[in-house]
Amino acid sequence: MNKRVPSNKRYQPTDYEHAANCATHALWIIPSLLGSSLLHFQSEDQWERVSAWVYGAGLSSLFTVSTLFHTVAWKKSHLRDVEQCFHMCDRMVIYFFIAASYAPWLNLRELGPWASHMRWLVWVMALSGTTYVFFFHERYKIVELICYTVMGLFPASVILYMPEQAGLCELLLGGTFYCLGMVFFKSDGIVPFAHAIWHLFVALGAAVHYYAIWKYLYAPPANPVRTSR
C-alpha cells in the first residue's frame, strides 16, 4: 500500500490494490443481474415486479459503476475528467442503492400510516445525497460518511417495527456487515487493500439482504401476506 494522504486528497492505490478494487465488485455484476431476473420471474403482481426491478437496478448499478470507476482510475493516464465523473457516479449510486434495498420491504410489507411515507422519503434522501455529491464531491468527506450512515439507518426505524418480522435477523446481519465495512472504507493507507476489503463487506451485506428479500418476499413457500394497495 502507499502512504496515507491528508483528508483533502484522494488516496492513490498501488497496482495490486487497483486490481483488487476492480475484481471485488466486478465478480458480482453477473450474479446481481441474474438475481434481479429471478425476483422478476417470481413476482406475482405489478408491485412485486416494480420492486424487483427497482431493487435489481440499484444492486447491479452499484457493482457496475464501482467496477467502471476503479478500472478507469487504474488505467486513467490522461482521463482525469472521465475518472472524476465516474468517481462522482460511484458515490451517487450508493444513495440509490440504499433506497433500492429498502424498496421491496417498504412496498411489499404492511406498514403503519406514518411509516408508509418512508416509501417516497427514501428517494428524497437519495436525491438529496446525489445533489450534495454533485456540488460538494470530496470536499467534506466526513459529511459524506455521515449522510450514508443516516440514510442507511433512518429507514430501519420503520422496518424494525413492521407487524411481520420475518427476515429481520438477516436485515440486521446485512446492516452489520455494512457498518463493519465502513471501518475499512476510511482506512486507506493504514490497512493494505482496505478499499477492497470494504468492497467485500458490501458484497456480503448485499448478499445477505438479497437472500432475505428473495426468501421472505418472493420465494413461494415463504410469501407473506401483502398489504392492500
Report on the structure:
By secondary structure, this protein is mostly helical. It has one domain. The protein contains nine helices and no strands. It has helices at 15-26, 29-41, 46-74, 80-108, 118-136, 141-153, 156-159, 168-185, 194-218. The chain is globular, with a radius of gyration of 18 Å. It starts with 14 loop residues before the first helix and ends in an 11-residue tail after the last helix.
Query: What Rg do the Cα atoms give?
Result: 18 Å
The main β sheet shows up as:
none
Overall body shape: globular
Distance between the termini: 53 Å
Q: Low-confidence segments, ≥5 residues, pLDDT <50?
A: none
Order of helices and strands: HHHHHHHHH
Number of domains: 1
Oligomeric grouping of the chains: single chain
- Average pLDDT for all residues: 89
In total, the number of strands is: 0
Helix content: over 70%
Which secondary-structure class do the elements indicate? mainly alpha
Beta fraction of the residues?
under 5%
Counting H and I runs of at least 4 residues, what is the number of helices? 9
